[in-house]
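Sequence only, no structure available. Ideas?
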Amino acid sequence: MQALRYLPLMSRCVAAIVGGYVVAALFSIAMLRLPQEPAEAAMLGMLYSFLVYAAVVIWVFAVRSAKRAWLGVMVPVAVLWPMAHWPDLRAML
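Reply:
I predicted one. Tokens follow.
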């Protein structure tokens, strides 16, 4: 029963590590879909993904509950997932 006491902390750690990686990766892929030069989009996506990952980690440990932490990770994933899988906007221009 003592191990259950650490369950919210372990959940937050998983949300920070795995969830932060997923959000940062989806953000980086979504940046490739913007109408700009592919090399520039890749560089910007990579650079901004570090900021996104840090923001997710800070968010996960700043909120009151593990539920809110997971919600704060899943909402950006739900927004970025379709954006990362849209057709290339450069081809449409």
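The two ends are 60 Å apart (CA to CA).
Hope that gets you unstuck.
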